[in-house]
Amino acid sequence: MADEANRTAFIEIQGRMIETTGKLKQVQTQIRNKETEKKRAYLTLEELKQLSEDTNTYKAIGRTFVLEPKTVLMNEQEQKLKDGETAIASLQVYSQIPFSLQHFVTHFLSRPDFFIVINYFLSHKIDMVIK
Question: Which residues form a coiled coil (predicted)?
Answer without folding.
Answer: 24-51
